[in-house]
Amino acid sequence: MAAHQHNLPTRTTGGIGDDDDAIPDIDPTDTSGLLQERLQAYKHACGYLENYITATEKVQKTHAKEYEKILKTVSDPLKEGHHFDQSLGGIAGLFENIRSNTQGIANSHLETEKTIKGSVLPILERLHAEIKNKSKELSKGAVKGSKEVDKARNVTQKHIELLGQHTAAFASSGGKIDPSNDPYVLQRGVNHRLHKQVLEENNNRHDLIEVQNSFSSFEAHIIQTFQQALQTFLQAVGGQHERQKAMYSDMVSTAQRIPLDFEFKGFVHRNNQLLVDPSAPKRDISHISFPNQNHASTQPLIAGTLERKSRALGALKGYSTDYYVVTPSKFLHEFKDDDDVRKDPVPELSLYLPDCTIGALSGDKFNIKGKDASKGKVGSALATSHELAFKAHSPADAEKWYNVIKQAAGGLATYTDEVSSPTSPIENRSVSGQQQPPPQYQDKNVAPVQTQGLTQGQGIGSAGPMSAGGQPQQPYNTPVSGGGQSAGVGSTPTSGVERKPGQY
Q1: Which helix (H) or strand (E) holds 332?
Q2: Whether 43 contacts 5, CB under 8 Å
Q3: Hey, which residues does 322 pair with through a beta bridge?
């Protein structure tokens, strides 16, 4: 009896993307979907076998011509047939053998009807239910995890696109952008979300590997159950004619010859590009790159820790150490630390240096006066200027920071040996009411900034602060912010900001 040749459909897949990409081309749902589809294939294969034996039971009442109906139940190619090895010795070969032997069956006996119904079909029905339960477990586990990976990747992709927009706008806007849209801040935000994404990917990868490993034993159980069902079926029809027995024995022997790992090995070989390689290393964020990762606007001009004196009532606490960065966007950002992983790196304080007044450098200290721009446009408009006193680890470090800040502010660096903290009438007030002498400065055309205690319309050089005795102090020179020039005695300095002195 000649065997019919059937070419079952096959599927080709593209290669996976670079594992070092921030958003890999491979979709995690492809792996879980592939495994889900494989369960469907086995469920349909089990259904095919159930239909075959059910039809055999019914045909026992009829003559040989009725066996043509049995053949029709398995005449169509297996659904999802590309999951099975098309060579002899596998599931596809088993059904091909069944078709060929069923064609030769001409007679059946009514005595076998009840035996088949009571002993063979329940085995396959239980297997069918097990496959359905396995499919539900996969849907609730690995498939759900794959959706979480997709969600995390979408969030990362949105922030990468946002980084791309603002790095592109950096040059055209001349670096004048909102602090929240600073490419440096956005780039750290991408790192934060990318870390969450990689955690989801690695967890989903672990789940998929466990599912893959369990598939081998589960498929062995399926094939063993097929073998058991067919063996029981052989015993049920053992009393039939020797020719029928030989044909059914041939079907069973074909099933028995299938190695338990034959189909799974072929499945892994054909789909090695979609299945997870258990030996492949986990993803490492240090090996991942994304667009504009090293754009010039994301690289700080200077970064490190500085000490800053607390404001208002917090001044009693002295200096506190934080992480500071000067970006190409001319912002001085303050962070609690330089950790991008633990939480989203949002600046605690942002000063737009061209709008600030930079005091002179004295040793390891310098002062900056300006508004906090980290609260957005509305918050910045309502914010008031504050004098911030900074202290570096050494005079050399202070000089580095001071030069970068002055350059970002648009001015030239200046130095003095005197104390660089801006003098305040509040700090110079004597408790006993005694008159304090005016501060003395070296004749370097640079002096500390007088920024507090000024009323509207009062110039810095027009009148000095009042002494404790009610007598005006002598006017003195103040540095010009952002210009590198000094105002003369009695003159009003130009700060580069189109506002009156004292209205920062």
Answers
A1: strand 331-335
A2: no
A3: 306
